[in-house]
Design the sequence.
């Protein structure tokens, strides 16, 4: 726990639709209760740009599809005591991993040549390089808690966070499943 | 593997399932007796009303006196038998079986027509499979949409052969078979011709209803819309087998 006895939480958004973060916000008024118990120290939901040295809980939405995703997953693993895979993309690759049935070149051709009429070209600047295969988060770093669902319901996220705040390891299969 | 017909004079045996004393007819299998006594044993290929296949191994149980794990669907009860259905070892094996099923083909529940109504998905949740530890294969499998009413998606097939058995044993058409080995193993219609060209299929839809996953579905269903109805099976099975 951090110095002020609140649980510090960092979240990251890799290759996902942001739906899991939206579902987090869907906790509605429970967010106010949560704000008394946790500090969100790094997240697409807050301004902080730097991940603190030591964070209690890291939450990752999305699969690992690009160099940047890989870097973020490793960064959170390094600095977070406990890492949560939130949502099907993080847990099993989900829709982003459907491209794994094809070679990366074929995926690029489909997206940036075959279906493009104006200046078809493969983007190289200002975008992270895609990995040959999309992997779930635990395919690249160790994960402690898995919360499947697309997205996991606000109730499921509330249950998982409440259990962690109380110092218990949650069993997400009680409240969510693949595709839920 | 059809079970032999019941003998004319059937004795009653007593046994223990998870420490609970139960009695049963000696021609019953462990899974039947367990379910009669509300002891849940997970299964996938087993379906009451069809012949026993014993392939998915989800229903394995421990029996005192033997180190071998036995499939509850294809093992008959015997006098004094002591059955354990849910030890930690069994739970671990079942989770592994389910994980391998998810890793072998392509299951994307969030966009699957059977999302929310799928036996494999429910099984994963019940067995506590919240992630798959082995790497996914992500191999390509075909979809056969040639039938007027139904679609076959090999990506979602778990090779339980329920479709094969119901079509042969209940409908009497024997449209389905199994072909190939290992990861190439797949269900086929007629002699591996497109389902829509099948001369034997009567379009009765029984295979679609018994399929535990989104592998066999009705055309025109969107995400989560495919529900299945197994109510016809016990009735037709009894009529077929003259009981
Ligand atoms: S068949 Fe079942 S387990 Fe497979 S993707 Fe569809 S809902 Fe999920
Ligand atoms: S629709 Fe009926 S006849 Fe056709 S393959 Fe399925 S079970 Fe067999
Ligand atoms: S198509 Fe369905 S019923 Fe047939 S083997 Fe595959 S999963 Fe089982």
Sequence:
């Amino acid at each position: 726990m951090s110095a002020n006895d609140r649980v510090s939480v960092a979240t990251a958004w890799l290759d996902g639709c942001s739906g899991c973060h939206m579902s987090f916000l869907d906790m509605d008024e429970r967010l106010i209760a949560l704000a008394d118990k946790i500090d969100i120290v790094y997240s697409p939901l807050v301004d902080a740009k730097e991940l603190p040295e030591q964070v209690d809980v890291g939450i990752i939405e999305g699969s690992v599809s690009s160099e940047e995703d890989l870097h973020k997953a490793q960064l959170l693993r390094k600095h977070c005591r406990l890492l949560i895979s939130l949502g099907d993309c993080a847990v099993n690759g989900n829709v982003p991993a459907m491209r794994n049935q094809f070679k990366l070149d074929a995926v690029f051709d489909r997206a940036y040549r075959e279906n493009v009429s104006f200046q078809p070209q493969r983007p190289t600047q200002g975008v992270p390089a895609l990995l040959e295969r999309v992997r779930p988060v635990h395919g690249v770093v160790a994960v402690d808690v898995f919360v499947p669902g697309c997205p996991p319901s606000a109730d499921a996220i509330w249950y998982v966070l409440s259990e962690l705040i109380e110092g218990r390891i949650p069993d997400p299969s009680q409240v969510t499943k693949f595709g839920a | 593997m059809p079970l032999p017909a019941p003998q004319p004079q059937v004795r009653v045996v007593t046994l223990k399932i998870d420490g609970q004393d139960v009695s049963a007819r000696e021609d019953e299998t462990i899974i039947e007796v367990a379910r009669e006594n509300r002891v849940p044993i997970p299964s996938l290929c087993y379906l009451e009303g069809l012949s026993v296949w014993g392939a998915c191994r989800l229903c394995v149980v421990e029996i005192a006196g033997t180190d071998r794990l036995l499939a509850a669907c294809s093992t008959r009860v015997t006098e004094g038998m002591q059955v354990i259905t849910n030890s930690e070892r069994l739970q671990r094996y079942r989770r592994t079986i389910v994980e391998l099923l998810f890793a072998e083909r392509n299951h994307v529940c969030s966009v699957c027509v059977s999302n929310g109504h799928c036996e494999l998905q429910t099984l994963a949740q019940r067995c506590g499979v919240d992630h798959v530890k082995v790497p996914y294969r992500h191999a390509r499998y075909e979809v056969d949409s040639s039938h007027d009413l139904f679609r076959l998606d090999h990506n979602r097939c778990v090779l339980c052969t329920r479709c094969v058995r119901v079509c042969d044993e209940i409908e009497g058409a024997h449209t389905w078979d199994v072909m190939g080995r290992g990861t190439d193993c797949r269900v086929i219609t007629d002699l591996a011709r497109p389902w829509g060209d099948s001369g034997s299929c009567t379009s009765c839809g029984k295979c679609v209803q018994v399929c535990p996953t989104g592998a066999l579905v009705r055309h025109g269903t969107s995400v989560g819309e495919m529900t299945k109805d197994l109510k016809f099976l016990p009735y037709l099975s009894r009529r077929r087998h003259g009981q």
